[in-house]
Amino acid sequence: MLIKNPEDIKSSEITDKDLYYNRRMFLRGAVLAGGAVATGYIYRFFTSHDEQSQAGEKIADVQTTPQTAVPAINEKPTSYEDFTHYNNFYEFSTDKLEVAGKANKFVTRPWTVAVEGLVQKPQVFDIDDLVKISPPEERIYRHRCVERWSMIVPWVGFPLSKLLDQVQPLSQAKYVAFETLADPKQMPNIRSDVLDWPYVEGLRLDEALHPLTILATGAYGESLPPQNGAPLKLVVPWKYGFKGLKSIVRIKLVEQQPPTTWNIAGPDEYGFYSNVNPNRDHPRWSQKVERRIGEFGVRDTLMFNGYGDQVAQLYAGMDLIKNF
Amino acid sequence: MRDTRFAQFAIFVNSAVPLTLLTWDWYHHHLGANPTEFATRTTGVLALLFLILSLAVTPLRKALGLPWMIKFRRLLGLYGFFYGCVHLLTYVWFDKFFGFAAIGEDIVKRPYITIGMASLVMMVPLALTSTQKSIKRLGGKRWNLLHRLAYVAAIGGVIHYYMLVKADTREPILFGVAVAVLLVYRLINKFAPRFTQRTPSRAQR
After folding, report:
1. What mean pLDDT is predicted for residues B132-140?
2. Is the pLDDT of residue A12 over 80?
3. Chain B residue with minimum CA distance to A283
4. How far is Cα B13 from Cα B7, in angstroms, rounded to an integer?
5. Which terminus of chain A faces fewer neighbouring Cβ atoms within 10 Å, N or C?
6. Beta carbons of B50 and B15 less than 8 angstroms apart
7. How far does the CA of residue B29 sit from the closest CA of chain A (Å)?
8. What digits encode the pLDDT tens for the residues A96-118?
9. What pLDDT is stored for residue A290 in this prediction?
10. Rounded CA gap, A113 and A135, in Å?
């Protein structure tokens, strides 16, 4: 290495002190700015999501006055944007903000739903025939997630009882078991083992036949986008949201209480009934209050999600803390 | 020793970027349907991340032979504590609205909150004694012993995260692995230092 003696360096070669400091300041500024931008990109990479969503199709002739008495809710429905971009659908992703983008390409036609088990007339319905069983009704329901958030959703669908009428349950049938599609080609998170797939749920037969229990084919006047459970989703408004499974492919009438996915995953946290109950805490959090999506504060959770007058008699004499 | 003031300043600025963007997104309603949940989750992950980064400084500087990196440890640790405090604040303010009865109930009845709270409380004495002066006052040995609490806080933070998720434990497990690797390094460093030093230390010769 060549090291010059100070005497060898001509004074003209020495960088001017101001220039030296200016250059250094400039470089440091550039390093700071570049670093901050890079950090910002890393942050964005880990926190942002593909927000594309399949557009729904308008459903014709939706009856806005339902055939059954549904308690009126004098609240504005949750925004469509929040309804379609804050979803629990673990087959696609466990991140609620990510489901819409991951489900964007989900194909829901052709689609069949098998209705079988203890019935007189087992049948495999094509979804386009199934939706014609009963005229579409708008049902504005509270939706309470077990995670302590809630929405107001104007579902479009028809009572589950109308479908069960078609297949005629036998007298031995005591429960209804439901199953969601489990297609690893279309549902990227199926390959993980976060839950046992396919996702299964169940209702007691009298719960399934209750007029508030519906099969939703749409919401907000349009067909459901995939992240919300297209083409067919169960809606049981007095129960926690996870009971209302999505993208249903099988409905089976059975004699014994069927297994349910979240109950298998956490038996002390998620019971078979999972009725909304502010007096029965989730072991890890209180269920007394909830955050309505779109609101800043929290509000009190209502027993049976506010549907006590309609459904409490289903559980007369039952200990709902034990049978959670 | 090399002048690290600029590097420290750069780390200081970069560490503030996530909070700046989080605040910006919150102000512009870009945090999704449930901003409170998003902010609580993000600040919690950041607290754990910075705590782990601060614990990674010593192994890194030894492995790379860059002793001056020690200057970053305090800054990263303090940022971990800072994000932990913001995390707590989002819970106390936006989730519980300063309902101290409900918070007390949570601390007593929910183990994951008990553990999370304990981990943050543990970091208070560490933040308070993070100055050069404190090292001198306590003496290096005692100071080092006290600051091993950072490992306990990190383990507590991982357990807190693991217990909170419903079914998808992949992310908390990833953080757990990071803490475990750092702990194993410490143990090797203690019992078989020749594997962790890049050049044998002079004192041993």
Report:
1. 90
2. no
3. B110
4. 10
5. N
6. yes
7. 11
8. 999 999 999 999 999 999 999 99
9. 96
10. 18
- The arithmetic mean of pLDDT across residues A132-143, rounded, is 95
Most B-contacting residue of A193, A274, A285, A287 (CB-CB within 10 A), to test interface: A285
Interchain contact, B18 vs A32, CB within 8 Å: no
Q: Which domains does chain A have, with CATH numbers?
A: 80-315 (3.90.420.10)
Q: Which residues pair with A93 in a beta bridge?
A: A89
Provide DSSP, A52-89: --PPPPBPTT-BSS-SS------SPPPPHHHHHHS--B
Kind and range of the H or E run holding B83: helix B71-90
pLDDT confidence band for A207 (50 / 70 / 90): very high
Dump pLDDT digits (tens) for B2-52: 678 899 999 999 999 999 999 999 999 899 999 999 999 999 999 999 999
Q: Chain A residue closest to B35 (CA)?
A: A296
Contact call for residues A234 and A217 (beta carbons, < 8 A): no
Contact B33 A293 (CB under 8 A): yes
pLDDT in tens, A253-272: 999 999 999 999 999 999 99
Calpha distance A289→A171 (Å, rounded): 40
Asked if the Cβ–Cβ distance from A284 to B163 is below 8 Å, we say yes
> How confident is the prediction for chain B on average, in pLDDT?
90
User: In residues, how long is chain B?
Assistant: 205
Kindly tell me the burial class for residue B108, based on how many C-beta atoms sit within 10 Å of its own C-beta (0-12, 13-18, 19 or more): exposed
Does A172 lie at the interface with B, CB-CB under 8 angstroms? Answer: no
Tell me which chain A residues have a C-beta less than 8 angstroms from the C-beta of B6: 28
Residue A170 reports pLDDT greater than 90: yes
Looking at residue A242, its pLDDT comes to 97
Q: Kindly state whether B3 is in contact with chain A, defined as any CB-CB distance less than 8 angstroms.
A: no
Give the CA distances from residue B167 to residues A47, A217, A260, B163, B171, in Å, rounded to whole numbers and listed in that order.
20, 28, 15, 9, 11
Spell out which residues of chain B touch residue A36, defining contact as CB-CB under 8 Å. Answer: 13-14, 17
For chain B, say whether A195 makes contact (Cβ under 8 Å): yes
Alpha helices in B91-148 (DSSP H): 100-109, 111-128, 132-138, 140-147
Chain A contact present for B42, CB below 8 A: yes
Q: How far apart are CA A300 and CA A286, in angstroms?
A: 11
DSSP summary character for residue B64: H
pLDDT of B186 higher than 60: yes
Cβ atoms within 10 Å of B202's Cβ, excluding its own: 6
Mean pLDDT of the A171-187 span: 97
A285 interfaces chain B, CB cutoff of 8 Å: yes
Quote the pTM value. Answer: 0.88
Any chain A CB within 8 A of the CB of B13?
Answer: yes
* Enclosing H/E stretch for A157: strand A149-159
B113-147 burial, b at 16+ Cβ within 10 Å, e below that, comes to bbbbbebbebbeebbebbeeeebeeeeeeebeeeb
CB B24 within 8 A of CB A36: no
**Sign of the CA dihedral with B82 first, then B87, B93, and B98 last:** negative
Burial grade of B95 (CB within 10 A; 0-12, 13-18, 19 or more): buried
